[in-house]
Amino acid sequence: MEDHEILLKFQDPASRNLAFNQLVRKYQSKVYWHVRKMVVDHDDADDLTQDVFVKVWKHLENFRQDAQLFTWIYRIATNECLNFLSSKRRKFLLPLTDVGAELAAKIEADPAIAGDEIELKLQKAILRLPDKQRLVFNLRYYDEMPYEQMAEVTGTSVGALKASYHHAVKKVEEYVTRNTDD
């Protein structure tokens, strides 16, 4: 079902629940994996995905449709991730590098995250990036999202996103190269 059809059904109180269920089915997996790439832990990603859809439910009738529904949902998910990671650092008084190390340890321990040695190094390198660079890297590299759509999701200019992605790629390359020669 197309987004505009879902939105039309959502406006009608009689079909609101059905429309929302269709929206969740359509986007739940994408949102979950977007969140999971940022927070790594399955349980955290599951909770945050649920929080995202609770916010979507609460605010969908006010959605102005000046952006795509998908981008709007991704923006909510992105903000939830960044707030969660920021809160985690404040709560445990952890510097950025410690949060990255904690997430890297979760990658190694998680049987659901399969991959060869180079994939594991790539994941560890990505986790060492600052949150916003990691977000930009994931959106561009994994989701193959165009910069214009990323700009809508993040509220950042296309030029800044390109620069951020470039810096992220350099850092990832540096880390993988440095840790492959061992």
UniProtKB/TrEMBL annotation:
One Pfam family cited in the UniProt record for this chain: Sigma70_r4_2
Source superkingdom: Bacteria
Domain RNA polymerase sigma-70 region: 23-90
Gene3D superfamilies recorded: 1.10.1740.10, Winged helix-like DNA-binding domain superfamily/Winged helix DNA-binding domain
Entry keywords, A to Z: DNA-binding, Sigma factor, Transcription, Transcription regulation
RNA polymerase sigma factor 70 region 4 type domain span: 121-171
Record-linked NCBIfam families: sigma70-ECF (TIGR02937)
Sequence similarity: Belongs to the sigma-70 factor family. ECF subfamily.
Designated name of the protein: RNA polymerase sigma factor
Organism taxonomic ancestry: Bacteria, Pseudomonadati, Bacteroidota, Cytophagia, Cytophagales
